[in-house]
Design brief:
Bound molecules: 2-amino-4-trifluoromethylsulfanyl-butyric acid, cobalt (II) ion
InterPro entries: Creatinase/aminopeptidase-like, Pept_M24, Pept_M24_MAP, Pept_M24A_MAP1
Family: Belongs to the peptidase M24A family. Methionine aminopeptidase type 1 subfamily.
Enzyme class: hydrolase
EC number: 3.4.11.18
Protein name: Methionine aminopeptidase
Strand content: 15-25%
Length: 256
């Protein structure tokens, strides 16, 4: 499969889907506190997407995934399954990953929260991981190569003695949830595919406090750090424009 270049009509639909996904994350700010379960978070997101946005939560039944969002707590890297058994407590860190389908197009985004009072070590991991995402985004423009983006992310993470997860990556996105190209969060400058105007893809670095190795739990979805140290992730859906980028899943708290 070739990388798809989106038409202006498709880009407008991607903007709508992206905005809806971002709104779901904004809605969660007031809810994430000690005592909430990851199933509560799932229900809040599901109900808002289906009843208010009249959209579809893409993860639900995707390759058999049983819930509407992914909730990844502490040493869970990604694809955590919401459950009423997981009660968030003071000091936990959590990623909620939301993907909505509106008018056939996908918007995919995630962010991190610290539950209750911030812990310095966790806050640093979360902030550096967000900086990794932003450093990748800032390079997006026609002519940049995917290896440039991966390299910038890897440099920033490793400078702070964190590691970059290798087993999962960003992806092209549009009518299809995960399409070409694969967007690695590590790499060599000057290598890989050249970006072109009209490409839409995610950047979603997963950065670990310890080593980068992953382990898949027997539920077939939950990915954890092999050394059980903390992991953080932030994700945006990006459009490559004629002279740079547009963050399709931008939240109002963000600069861009
Ligand atoms: N939203 C995830 C991503 O960023 C994919 C989740 S697939 C699921 O690509 F099935 F786990 F939900
Ligand atoms: Co994604
Ligand atoms: Co996602």
């Amino acid at each position: 499969m070739q990388v798809s270049i989106k038409t202006p009509e498709e880009i407008e639909k991607m903007r709508v889907a992206g905005r809806l996904a971002a709104e779901v994350l904004e809605l969660l700010d007031e809810h994430i506190k000690p005592g909430i379960t990851t199933e509560d978070i799932n229900r809040i997101c599901h109900d808002h997407i289906v009843n208010v946005q009249k959209a579809i939560p893409a993860p639900l039944n995707y390759k058999g995934f049983p819930k509407s969002v992914c909730t990844s707590v502490n040493h869970v890297i990604c694809h955590g399954i919401p459950t009423e058994k997981k009660v968030l407590k003071e000091g936990d860190i959590i990623n909620v990953d939301v993907t909505v389908i509106k008018d056939e197009y996908h918007g995919d985004t995630s962010k991190m929260w610290i539950v209750g009072k911030p812990k310095p070590g966790s806050e640093r991991l979360i902030n550096i991981t967000q900086e990794c995402l932003y450093k990748g985004i800032e390079l997006v423009k026609p002519g940049t190569r995917l290896g440039d983006i991966g390299h910038a992310i890897q440099q920033h993470a490793e400078k702070h003695r964190y590691s970059v997860v290798r087993d999962y990556c960003g992806h092209g996105i549009g009518k299809v949830f995960h399409e070409e190209p694969q967007v690695m969060h590590y790499g060599k400058p000057g290598t890989g595919m050249e970006l072109q105007e009209g490409m839409t893809f995610t950047i979603e670095p997963m950065i670990n406090q310890g080593k980068y190795q992953t382990k898949l739990l027997p539920d077939g979805w939950t990915v954890v750090t092999k050394d059980h140290k903390l992991s953080a992730q932030w994700e945006h859906t990006i459009l490559c424009t004629a002279d740079g980028y547009e963050v399709l899943t931008k939240r109002s708290e963000e600069p861009f």
